Amino acid sequence: MRNDARDDFHDVPLLRATAADQDPLEPAGGARERTTVYSRNTPVIKVKGPSTGPLWVLVGALMLAVAGLGWWSFQQISLMEQQLVATQESFARISEDAAGRLQAISGKVVASESNINNGSEALKLQIKQIEEQLQEQSTRQQGMVAGQQGELDNRFEQMNAAMLLQVTAQKESQTRLEADIKSLGSELTTLKASVAQQAVDVAALKKQGNPGAAVERLEQDLMVLKSELENRPAPAQGTNTAEFDAFRGQVTRNINTLQSQIQNLQKQISARP
User: Fold this and answer.
1) What is the C-alpha to C-alpha distance for residues 194 and 247, in angstroms, rounded to an integer?
2) Contacts (Cβ under 8 Å, ≥6 apart) of 198
3) CA dihedral over 38, 41, 44, 45, signed as positive or negative
4) Does residue 228 lie within any of the structural domains?
């Protein structure tokens, strides 16, 4: 297992070429002193170390890449900062617009509530006025109904009294009519008797030889009877006098017949030598 907390980062080897790396390798002096070799002298071949140019090129490229990456990161960070500032400004404008709209909406809501309250108060006032008008109209109608009822009662009483008066007057008129009919009946009986007597007298005169004075007297009696019949007052209006009119017409015709007979008798008497 790894234990990064206990790792020692102080003994990290350096990755760079030094001047000692370019020197040829020589045997250590201690080794020579410890080792004694008796041999012939051999030529020493110098071995050339590896070239560090590509390493430096790689390091330079890495540094350029790191520098480019840093510059690009800086540009991206600057761009992000600009975008963040623009976003913050946009949010600020949006917040201000939203605050203004909210304030306008709040004002409209307050105005609407005020209008609603005013409309509600006006509606309540109108309802109260309508209720008062209805109450007043109901009271007025009740008074009018009571007055009309009283007026109708008065009219009914007046009509009842008028009808009673008419009935009473009709009863009185009926009573008078019955009395008149009785009186007319007796008078008609008398007239019938008179006419019958006149007819008898005319017949007797026809049988007499010289009836001049009797004819004149009979003619005068007929004239008096006719004038009495014509001058008799008519019954009250509306009375059923058909029978009386018929009898009077008949009596008048009889009297006219008797007068014509008397005139004929007078002519006969005048024509005699």
Assistant:
1) 14
2) 218, 221, 222, 225, 255, 258
3) negative
4) yes
